[in-house]
Amino acid sequence: MPGTTSLMAAGYHRDRRYLPSLDPACHIIREVSDSWVTDCIVKQGGSGGPVFIQENNELKIAAVVSATNGTDKSIAVPRKQWQSLLDNPSCGN
User: Fold this and answer.
1) What is the mean pLDDT of the segment spanning 69-75?
2) Is the per-residue pLDDT at 83 higher than 70?
3) Burial, 76: exposed, middle or buried (Cβ in 10 Å; 0-12, 13-18, 19+)?
4) Fewer Cβ neighbours under 10 Å: the N or C end of the chain?
5) Distance between CA atoms of 64 and 71, rounded to whole angstroms?
6) Which domains are assigned to the chain?
7) SS3 sequence, the chain?
8) Contact call for residues 59 and 22 (beta carbons, < 8 A)
């Protein structure tokens, strides 16, 4: 999957709080510890933003941005890592 799948990263960055930014053509560089290292350009404040993938002419959320190095790489947590939380939300009583 690294390098072949085209992603789109969106977010509200600190310097443009009311206007979303989009990196329309970024890719997974490698997978590390159940996370993706991407070449998506994400500025500080963009953490938590969605990373989309296009499947069958529909945009689907593939991951969530969790960090950036501030220049040319970001870390995203793939949906498969947190989908179970959406399917079975609980507080762990």
Assistant:
1) 81
2) yes
3) buried
4) C
5) 18
6) 6-87 (2.40.10.10)
7) CCCCCEEEEEECCHHHCCCCEEEEEEEEEEEECCEEEECCCCCCCCCCCEEEEEECCEEEEEEEEEEECCCCCEEEEEHHHHHHHHHCCCCCC
8) no
